C-alpha cells in the first residue's frame, strides 16, 4: 500500500548526498517538499532531527525521521514499491550495497581527505580516490548492461551518480 503521508527532505545545495534522495523520490513519483539547510549555520530543525550526525540529507515522512542517504534510499524503496531501486534477488541487492559502500568508503573518504590535506598526504588520497574509481568502473563494466544494476536505473546508479 502506497503511503500518502507528507514527505519532506532536508538538504544543502552543495552536498551531493541529498541528490541521491531527490532522484529516488522523483523516480518513484513521490511528491515532497525540499527544505534548504545552511550547513555553516545549522538550523534547530536539523539538529533536532539528526542529533547524531547533524548533517543532511534527512527525510521526514509523516512523523518518521530517517537520516543518511543510503538508509533513506532503502526506506524509499521499501515504502514506495513502484519502480524498485534494489535488485529483486538477494545476491544482486548484496552486490549493490557492497559497491555503494565501497564507493562511500574508498572514493568519497579519499576525495574529501585530498581536499583537506596538502603535500604527500594529498597525493596519496588523490591516488587512492582515482584507484577506487577505476576499480568501480572495471567491476561495473563487466555486466554489459545499460545501467549499473541492469536494464533500468536503480540503487547503484543513484548511489554512484553523484560521482559522475
UniProtKB/TrEMBL annotation:
The keyword GTP-binding does not apply. It holds the Pfam family GST_N. Gene3D superfamilies: 1.20.1050.10, Glutaredoxin. Keywords: Cytoplasm, Transferase. GO terms for cellular component: cytosol. InterPro entries: Glutathione-S-Trfase_C-like (IPR010987), Glutathione-S-Trfase_C_sf (IPR036282), Glutathione_S-Trfase (IPR040079), Glutathione_S-Trfase_N (IPR004045), GST_C_Tau (IPR045074), Omega/Tau-like (IPR045073), Thioredoxin-like_sf (IPR036249). It is an enzyme of class 2 (transferase). Signal peptide: none annotated. Its EC number is 2.5.1.18. Its main location: cytoplasm. PROSITE patterns: GST_CTER, GST_NTER. Residues 5-84 form the GST N-terminal domain. One of its GO terms (molecular function) is glutathione transferase activity. Residues 89-164 form the GST C-terminal domain. CDD domains: GST_C_Tau, GST_N_Tau. GO terms for biological process: glutathione metabolic process. It catalyses: RX + glutathione = an S-substituted glutathione + a halide anion + H(+). It is found in: Cytoplasm, Cytosol. Belongs to the GST superfamily. Is involved in the conjugation of reduced glutathione to a wide number of exogenous and endogenous hydrophobic electrophiles. This is Glutathione S-transferase.
